[in-house]
# Entry
Amino acid sequence: MIKRIAQTAGFTGLLAALLLTLLQSLWVAPLILQAETYEKPPATTEVTHEHAGAAAHPHDAEAWEPEDGWQRVLSTTGGNLVVAVGFALMLAGLYTLRAPTRTVQGLLWGLAGYATFVLAPTLGLPPELPGTAAADLTLRQSWWIGTAASTAAGIALIVFGRNWLLKVLGVAILAVPHVIGAPQPQVHSMLAPEALETQFKIASQLTNVAFWLALGLISAWLFRRHRDDRYPA
Amino acid sequence: MSITTSTSHSASSTATLSQRLSAAIGASILGACLVYFAGFSHIEAVHNAAHDTRHSAAFPCH
# Structure
């Protein structure tokens, strides 16, 4: 069972991360690079990633940073791989409780993942280009994690709840983080032009939809392939 | 003479609910740790390495 989860998660993460890297390289990364040209004006020196929130701290000059080019693509691929395997582990873990009866059901799991980890958090904290003012990082991360958790719980109750009371409870849990509201900066500002930001939001959402649909489909397919009961002990 | 007794074969090989539950929870926690490490870690070098991953996935960054 554990081998089945590991195999499903490993191969799914690898394939989905490669797809994600491809889409990013073609569409998302060029927008980030373009935004960074506004962030690092050639005249001034260290003005990287200035916070508009209370705790403005310049980045540690000592920390390693990949150089633009193959190094940056490679380290982004690594980041994608870790994130994709992580999400795939969650899916494969859930499949041991609710095994998909058909591979196509993976698309529904993928949609649920997209709603949980992208759509719901971006309703309060939209995808941002570098150089966009935002509230305190830890506050935003906490809201993001809380929103993902409550969306997951809400969707699970709505889909698997046996009676209408549980489904209504699911909707309520789904709404809680949005009633509380995401932490916002005191002053909204961005260095990149608004058209670039809009394009980035679309690129990020569509890339993430593709990533999650692929993740769901591939994981369901692999999970069903690695069936333990094909080899009874 | 031959009596069919192999019907319970496949049923006995499936894991119990508690085993499946612990595998599911374990895998989910491990997965969440991986996502947290790449997407939410405050270590500067990790942030820089996964910077574009974070922006693309709409994780809070900076």
